[in-house]
């Protein structure tokens, strides 16, 4: 009696085929998930870059606005 016979396990070609088909479907699902995740990551990256641009531009805009207010105050008080 061989070792295979003593274990009492027999796997048919159909069972192997069914498992491979299931594995293929799993891989396709993971590929789709990875594609969706990559698109979401790119979108988040773009949003973060836009926020960073705004964050660094805001102080410059504030200084410019303050300078305009001071220049206007000087112009108004200089005429009075």
What's the number of extended β-strand segments?
Answer: 0
How many strands, which pairing sense, and closed or not: the largest β-sheet? Answer: none
Per DSSP, what share of the residues sits in E-state strands of 2 or more residues? under 5%
Oligomeric nature of the chains: single chain
Report the order of strands and helices: HH
Number of domains: 1
Q: What is the helix content?
A: over 70%
Nearest-integer average pLDDT: 87
List the helices and strands and how they pair.
Blueprint: H1 3-7, H2 13-79
Structure description:
The structure is a single chain. It is built from two helices and no strands. By secondary structure, the chain is mostly helical. It has one domain (12-79).
Outline of this structure?
This protein has 80 residues and is an all-alpha fold. 90% of the residues lie in helices and 0% in strands.
């Amino acid at each position: 009696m061989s070792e295979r016979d003593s274990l009492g396990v027999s796997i048919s070609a159909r069972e192997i085929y069914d498992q491979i088909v299931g594995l293929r479907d799993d891989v396709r699902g993971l590929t789709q998930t990875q594609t969706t995740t990559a698109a979401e990551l790119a979108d988040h990256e773009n949003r973060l870059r836009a926020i960073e641009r705004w964050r660094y531009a805001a102080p410059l805009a504030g200084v410019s606005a303050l300078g305009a207010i001071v220049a206007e105050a000087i112009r108004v008080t200089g005429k009075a």
